[in-house]
């Protein structure tokens, strides 16, 4: 059996590739496949996920895809595709096909056929449970995705990984024989059978004659949707612009020549102390900052796709990035000659206190600006203290935010030197038939809008201080 020859992987790209082999085999069998009825419901063409844009093996001669690929350079789509290890997954996919898949599949199953199967797996498969793993589930994959979804799918993940039983089974015993000696449907006579189902659960009322939407994930950004599913949502509130800590340090290196940037260890030490201080609570009152959801992680990540160094769709800076920038801005107040590469305890304590003063100054100024808009602003009480330290640091932070955003803008898209208005004109001239290019430019425009909105907010703060 083919299944016995496929090396299984529990999750990630390895699981997708293994499932792609199985799907390729079934597609090649056509009507002879036991899944033929389901296979007929799948798209007959390769799903145009961004990973495959410009790939001739996947999409043939496709000027639209090639142009779209050039446009996503430096975008969040680019970061998403390269993943945590900053590698192009197409290298691994091609390597897997030539070294493994091609030897298991019929000769008629070319790399193009395999990439079509991969595109279907990427855009439709999901993790079912510990036994089935990543799976294609008929009917469950028929629903489109939106943020305000009507339904979601539920499976009991914690089943026996050897036989799939949700109830007690022989594999729960320490003296259990190997899985190959056990029938797959073994069930203890003392435990009632539990249906092996994937349940569709309704979240809210569904009106008659309207499309029913599912969710592919609670926080799917457009970059993720385009990379792995081939579509985007209008005004996706889950969009973020992220940086690795090393990227931020590199971007600010030229902007902060007079002092050293904090080491990662020093930054994390100050961050931990500040987050447990009363001063950090004031940050929740700032309209320019937000706290990213850690999605159950015990500690924040400062690199990769889950980085907390980010700006959200409302152009708000994460508090984690704000702390880093504020430490950078404060170094001129704390021993500028040696920088913060090796903090001593008193430096950390002074920094935590200074962070509290800076955020208090910032929130006070934000409130004043909001009240001025309503024409009812009282005289502002400065939180800077006698020497104005907090104000000076806050102004430097605003400058660093501006610099960080501008340097990111300078790397996004095919023509980063053009203005947003000029890019909008290019977008308007792209024919509707060039869907991939339009999606790519729309992503560039969305990311620039976020970064420029962030710049505008911090410039307003700086100019009115």
TrEMBL record:
<dbReference type="InterPro" id="IPR050600">
    <property type="entry name" value="SETD3_SETD6_MTase"/>
</dbReference>
<protein>
    <recommendedName>
        <fullName>SET domain-containing protein</fullName>
    </recommendedName>
</protein>
<dbReference type="InterPro" id="IPR046341">
    <property type="entry name" value="SET_dom_sf"/>
</dbReference>
<dbReference type="GO" id="GO:0016279">
    <property type="term" value="F:protein-lysine N-methyltransferase activity"/>
</dbReference>
<dbReference type="GO" id="GO:0005634">
    <property type="term" value="C:nucleus"/>
</dbReference>
């Amino acid at each position: 059996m083919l299944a016995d020859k496929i090396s299984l992987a529990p999750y990630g790209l390895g699981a997708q590739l293994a499932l792609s082999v199985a799907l390729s085999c079934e597609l090649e069998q056509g009507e002879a496949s036991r899944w033929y009825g389901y296979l007929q419901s799948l798209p007959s063409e390769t799903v145009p996920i961004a990973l495959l844009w410009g790939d001739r093996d996947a999409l043939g001669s496709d000027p639209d895809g090639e142009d779209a690929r050039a446009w996503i350079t430096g975008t969040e789509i680019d970061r998403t595709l390269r993943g945590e290890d900053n590698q192009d997954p197409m290298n691994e996919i091609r390597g897997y096909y030539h070294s493994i898949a091609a030897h298991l599949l019929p000769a008629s199953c070319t790399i193009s056929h395999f990439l079509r199967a991969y595109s279907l797996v990427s855009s439709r498969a999901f993790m079912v449970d510990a036994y089935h793993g990543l799976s294609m589930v008929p009917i469950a994959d028929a629903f489109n995705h939106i943020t305000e979804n009507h339904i979601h799918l539920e499976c009991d993940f914690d089943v026996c990984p050897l036989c799939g039983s949700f109830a007690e089974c022989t594999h729960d015993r320490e003296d259990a024989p190997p899985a190959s000696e056990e029938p797959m449907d073994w069930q203890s006579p003392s435990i009632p059978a539990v249906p092996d189902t994937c349940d569709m659960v309704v979240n809210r009322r569904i009106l008659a004659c309207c499309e029913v939407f599912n969710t592919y994930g609670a926080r799917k950004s457009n970059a993720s949707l385009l990379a792995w599913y081939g579509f985007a949502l209008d005004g996706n509130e889950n969009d973020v612009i992220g940086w690795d800590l090393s990227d931020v340090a590199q971007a600010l290196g030229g902007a902060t020549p007079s002092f050293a940037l904090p080491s990662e260890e020093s930054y994390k030490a100050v961050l931990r102390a500040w987050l447990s201080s009363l001063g950090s609570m004031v940050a929740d009152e700032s309209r320019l900052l937000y706290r990213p959801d850690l999605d159950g992680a015990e500690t924040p990540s400062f690199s990769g796709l889950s980085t907390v160094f980010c700006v959200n769709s409302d152009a708000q800076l994460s508090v984690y990035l704000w702390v880093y920038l504020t430490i950078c801005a404060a170094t001129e107040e704390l021993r500028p000659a040696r920088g913060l590469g090796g903090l001593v305890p008193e430096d950390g304590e002074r920094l935590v206190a200074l962070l509290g003063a800076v955020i208090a100054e910032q929130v006070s100024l934000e409130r004043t600006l909001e009240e001025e808009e309503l024409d009812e602003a009282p005289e502002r009480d400065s939180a800077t203290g006698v020497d104005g330290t907090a104000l000076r640091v806050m102004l430097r932070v605003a400058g660093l935010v501006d610099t960080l955003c501008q340097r990111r803008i300078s790397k996004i898209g095919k023509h980063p030197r053009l203005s947003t208005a000029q890019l909008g004109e290019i977008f308007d001239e792209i024919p509707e038939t060039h869907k991939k290019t339009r999606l790519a430019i729309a992503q560039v425009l969305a990311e620039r809008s976020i970064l420029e909105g962030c710049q505008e907010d911090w410039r307003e703060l700086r100019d009115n201080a």
